[in-house]
Structure formats: structure tokens, C-alpha cells
């Protein structure tokens, strides 16, 4: 949710890193973001769950990758 929220607000996500147990927004805003970005017009709860699970795995792997660390790659992969 935090990534999607910042993306919609136009923030540079290259330097953002999720902090465990940090809370932003409210449940209604979170659901709205997931519905907006899941890519399905009228998703079921199962489809929303799969979307959030997949997005979470991808973002966790991205944060753990040295190739996505702006301090390591500096400006060589700008916008990647």
C-alpha cells in the first residue's frame, strides 16, 4: 500500500524502503489503492489477495537486491 500510495503521489520510489510495522492511511484507503492498481475491473477477494501477495513478494525482493539499491547503482539505472 505504501508503495502504491507514493507512486500515485508522484514520489521517487528509488529511495523508499518499507519499515516493518509502520502504519499509514486507513483500511478504506488501502482497499481503494488495491482496487485501482490490481488491473481487474471487479476483482474477487481472492484476486485482491493474490495481487497483494505477488506485489509484496516482488517489492521485498526488489528491496533486498543490491541491483535496486540506489547507493550501489548510483545513477546508472535511472528509472529502472
From TrEMBL:
Keyword Ligase (UniProt): yes
Single Gene Ontology MF annotation: ubiquitin-protein transferase activity
Coiled coil location: none
Any GO BP: ubiquitin-dependent protein catabolic process
InterPro entries, A to Z: RNF213
One Gene Ontology cellular component annotation held by this UniProt entry: membrane
Keywords recorded for this protein, A-Z: Ligase
Keyword Ligase belongs to the record: yes
Annotated PANTHER family: E3 UBIQUITIN-PROTEIN LIGASE RNF213, RZ-TYPE DOMAIN-CONTAINING PROTEIN
Protein name per Swiss-Prot or TrEMBL: RN213 ligase
Organism expressing this protein natively: Balaeniceps rex
Gene responsible for this protein: Rnf213_2
Amino acid at each position: 500500500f505504501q508503495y502504491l500510495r507514493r507512486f500515485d503521489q508522484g514520489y521517487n520510489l528509488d529511495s523508499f524502503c518499507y519499515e516493518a510495522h509502520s502504519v499509514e492511511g486507513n483500511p478504506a484507503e488501502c482497499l481503494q489503492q488495491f482496487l485501482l492498481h490490481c488491473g481487474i475491473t471487479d476483482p474477487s477477494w481472492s484476486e485482491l489477495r493474490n495481487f497483494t501477495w505477488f506485489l509484496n513478494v516482488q517489492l521485498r525482493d526488489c528491496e533486498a537486491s543490491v541491483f535496486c539499491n540506489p547507493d550501489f547503482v548510483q545513477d546508472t539505472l535511472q528509472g529502472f
